Amino acid sequence: MKKNIHIVSFDIPYPPNYGGIIDIFFKIKELHKLGIGIYLHTYLFNDKTRQPELEKYCEKIFYYKRKNAFLSLFSKLPFRVQSRSCNKLIENLKKLQFPIIFEGLHTAYPLKKYNFKNTYIRAHNIEHIYFLGLSKSEKNIFKKVFFLLESIKLKRFENILEKATGIFSISPFEQAYFTKKYGAKTFYIPVFHATTNLTQTAEKGDFILYHGDLRIADNVRAALFLIDVYKNTPYQFVVASSCKNKTVLKHIKKYHNLNFKDIPTQESLEQLFKKAQINTLFTFQKTGIKLKLLNTLHQGKHIISNTQMTEDTGLESLCELANTKKEILEKTSKLLEEKFSKTDIIVRKEKLLDFNTIENAKKIIAIIFKQ
Hints:
By secondary structure, the chain is of the alpha/beta class.
């Protein structure tokens, strides 16, 4: 008899072009490969449209309209939860009595209204810590206050996890946090991702690369920090993103050794990985595991990162740690002259075995169906 599950996604998981959506899309693909019937529930908002590509992997897809009403801001519930509250979703989950994976705390509103059995929440972050970090990084005062209030509301709403059968954490850091609060029903399932093979070239690169989504305040803050590190140095430093940020571009234009590269496609990023000698990965928020870290480990050469990017990921030893301007420049000087060897690639391959997507899909099936 075919095994079926509901997956409630906070956003349409295609195209897989940012962190949480990447995890959901490749999880769906792997579960489908293993013969699991998937009933996907997701939301239409902004310019999002229905995605026929998902029909290849799902038995049925339910689309709901996300509420972006101004009044949602004044709810006791977090905005990201209240705006996804939907009675039709609850009705559809009731009709088909399958196990449910709620992707992110912000999709868990149905647990507030009905005692569903066999429910699992994929914790993409410790949400209140993540939003507190956004508040600290944000320059716009209105967004700063919004993120702070959202953090407070999310901390309170997190108690909904008591009603879940299980929690799927995304990194060792989150695993420790949720295990301490909710006990043995927390399971560490590493992030699902596109890259399965290491594709580094041993050919020496000639510049330093930082890449990230410059719509995110934390990434803008990291880019500006690194611009300050590398300005007026002999090193070529490239900031790459699929979207432009005026403040970042303004600073880049001041210095001859700094450049911005547009990355409209995954292929354009892959070309930068091949040519860069060093990848700089910095964050000011210690939450989850950054998909860009995994992507860079699979495709890039040397990595310089700060503590918050790698701590409690299990991948610390694969990066050169540097937290200050002085440390970054010392590591840069060393790594620009150091060949990225075949031995380095072998070491990475062994360390990345935990991120085997098909094996982690099997773990989820074993937990949900008690195999």
